[in-house]
Backbone:
């Protein structure tokens, strides 16, 4: 290989750097390349930022415009009506009314009407008599209803909260000698229930206070201990007992500690309240029914509102006189309501509501001319209008050894000499109006 010193001139020219080759232009950079690239990227970035800034301003103007529109638009739109939530009460069919009449009115008081196998609850006709007017619900009827609520939840779990329903004996056991967890410890094993109490949204605890039913709720979902009383009272002692129970229950079943010190203990306000001395059990059960549906307590004794504006009379003499005057005014026979030893008569002319209360629990009267026996409960109510008593409660007539509820009595314009009785089964019969004359 030749060394550079001996290479020919041509070869030496080829070995010169490229910028010295013939025909090539030598470029001398005043600004380094990296600075040019940086400035170019800065100009591109600034352009994008200006575009983004414009889009932000545009979006802000759009937002402000929508806010102004939202303020103005309701003035030109009708206010939507709040949808009324229907009360979850199913009216009895004629067939249901017939079944009720048979269940309450049969002769054999020891007859088994219901046998609930899973709970071993047996309902006889004697036990079912607590559903009559002015009676208190007993343990068997309440506990059977709670069993039916359990079964309802299992059938349609998506419609109802996950709940546990203690029976009426639980709190009695738990509160023995102040507090006794051991007596109820085995009531809630997972083997028995199939779940633990802490998996529930709400736990219902019926409480019986000698002659009054109340309800306590361990509201796990909302972290509350709640007390509901249809007379409006509060029992902090019961809530403290249940708070202690929940702590012991969780520790016993899971070995863990649950802190309930921050849980609220409250008497639920704005409850539907009973307006008599015997419906506490029914109110307690409806509290449970509605709460297990996760519904507001929208029920009440609607019929009681009609008493507020009524003219009321007391004493047998005054009540008989006023009730006869009302029947005469309506064009109905004066002897249609032969109650005995009447204590109270009320009549609200504005709504047409009337009631009669007698001292006896039941009065049976046979209208001799037609040989028809009719029974009258301790309280009879009806809505009245010219020639008619409708929505009657507390009146039954005997047909073929069965007592059937009378729901309507009327005198037709076309046949004023006849009085028609209509029962809850849909059956009706007409009689000579003179059979119901005063004193008959």
Residues:
């Amino acid at each position: 290989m030749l060394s550079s010193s001996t290479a020919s001139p041509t070869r030496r020219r080829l070995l010169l750097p490229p910028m010295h080759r013939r025909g090539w232009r030598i470029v001398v950079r005043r600004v380094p390349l990296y600075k040019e690239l940086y400035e170019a990227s800065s100009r591109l970035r600034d352009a994008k930022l200006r575009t983004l800034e414009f889009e932000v301003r545009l979006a802000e103007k759009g937002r402000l415009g929508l806010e102004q529109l939202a303020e103005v638009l309701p003035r030109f739109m009708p206010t939507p009506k709040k949808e009324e939530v229907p009360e979850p009460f199913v009216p009895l069919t004629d067939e249901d009314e017939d079944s009720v009449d048979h269940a309450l009115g049969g002769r054999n008081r020891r007859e088994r009407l219901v046998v609930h196998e899973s709970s071993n609850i047996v309902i006889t006709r004697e036990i079912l008599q607590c559903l009559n007017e002015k009676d208190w619900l007993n343990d068997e009827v309440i506990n059977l209803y709670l069993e039916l609520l359990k079964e309802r939840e299992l059938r349609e779990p998506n419609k109802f909260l996950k709940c546990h329903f203690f029976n009426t004996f639980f709190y009695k056991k738990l509160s023995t000698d102040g507090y006794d967890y051991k007596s109820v410890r085995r009531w809630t094993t997972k083997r028995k229930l199939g779940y633990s109490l802490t998996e529930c949204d709400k736990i219902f605890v019926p409480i019986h206070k000698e002659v009054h039913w109340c309800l306590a709720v361990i509201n796990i979902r909302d972290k509350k201990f709640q007390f509901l009383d249809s007379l409006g009272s509060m029992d902090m002692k019961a809530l403290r007992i249940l708070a202690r129970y929940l702590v012991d229950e969780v520790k016993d079943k899971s070995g863990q500690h649950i802190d309930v010190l921050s849980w609220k203990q409250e008497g639920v306000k704005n409850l539907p309240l009973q307006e008599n001395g015997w419906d506490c059990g029914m109110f307690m059960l409806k509290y449970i029914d509605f709460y297990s549906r996760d519904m507001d307590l929208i029920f009440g004794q609607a019929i009681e509102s009609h008493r507020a504006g009524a003219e009321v009379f007391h004493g047998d003499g005054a009540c008989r006189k006023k009730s006869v005057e009302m029947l005469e005014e309506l064009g109905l026979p004066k002897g249609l309501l032969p109650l005995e030893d009447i204590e109270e008569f009320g009549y609200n002319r504005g709504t047409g509501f009337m009631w009669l209360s007698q001292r006896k629990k039941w009065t049976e009267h046979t209208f001799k001319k037609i040989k028809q026996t009719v029974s009258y409960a301790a309280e009879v109510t009806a809505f009245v209008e010219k020639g008619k008593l409708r929505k009657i409660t507390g009146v039954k007539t005997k047909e073929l050894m069965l007592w059937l509820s009378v729901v309507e009595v009327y005198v037709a314009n076309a046949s004023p000499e006849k009085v028609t009785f209509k029962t809850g089964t849909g059956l009706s019969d007409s009689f000579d109006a003179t059979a119901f004359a005063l004193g008959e």
